[in-house]
Amino acid sequence: MSELSQRVVVVTGGSAGIGRATVERLVSDGARVVTCARDGDRLADAVGALRGVTCVTADMVDAADRARLLEGTLTEHGRLDGVVLNAGLGWAGLVEDMPADAVAGIVALNLTGAIELTRLALPHLLAAARERGRGDVVAVSSVAAWAQVPPLTVYSATKAGLAGFVKGLRREVTARGVRVHTVNPFFVETEWLARGHGHAPTSDADAEGRLSRGIAPERVADRIAGCLRSPWSRTVSVPRWAGAARLGEVTPVNRLLDLAFSPQADRIRAAARRAVAARIGDRTVA
Length: 286
Fold this sequence. Notes:
Blueprint: E1 8-12, H1 17-28, E2 32-37, H2 40-47, E3 53-57, H3 63-77, E4 82-85, H4 100-132, E5 135-140, H5 153-173, E6 178-185, H6 192-196, H7 204-207, H8 217-229, E7 235-238, H9 253-261, H10 265-280
Parallel strand pairs: 1-2, 1-4, 2-3, 4-5, 5-6, 6-7
InterPro entries: NAD(P)-bd_dom_sf, Sc_DH/Rdtase_CS, SDR_fam
GO molecular function, one term: oxidoreductase activity
Keywords: Oxidoreductase
């Protein structure tokens, strides 16, 4: 089971960015992939024509949709070998400027949705480990899980929470054959910021010029595929040098970050507003 051929993997958020690149990578390696997104038309246009892919319109914030995604996977394939927890949202700005619904939505998707989907999947992943040698959970996290800095404070908190969940889960299931991984990218060229601020592109053409700056999502997909092949649970950064962000959790570096960022709140707010305006196509923000 170290290879991906014929393994059944669920990938959330497959219509664009890291999720889409991951679906493409896994099916090229022979996996059978069930993927979901809230925009079913966009999802079908993105990956629906790929051999071995099943597309499901589903929102991972919705409990019924999470259950339906797994039930459909088991009905179609009769098994589940891995889950890639990719769907996520971000919001750039100071906490005091955040709408309440933005806070609730980010926590519900990035943390609660990921934990709940994992909880539903675990009995089937444990069965895969008993019957075929392994099951896998791959959480797409962020270097922000290690260094929580504005203007991504709430997003960072959800990723730090996800990291804590992964560590605890490893201690529950590793001896029973389920590997639990996190992939922690630096900035990635995706629609992440536009989506988090309520302006999700409706097509690849619509996304042109609105992607966040960063590394290609295919690089992250490569590391996700590597985790699904790994004989042990892994925590990886993309690029590798981004793992230096772990120093953000260590004293005195964490105190230096406090001192460096706190006096810059007004500048951070202004920079975040400009970045968001560029991603949502609003040129009125200076």
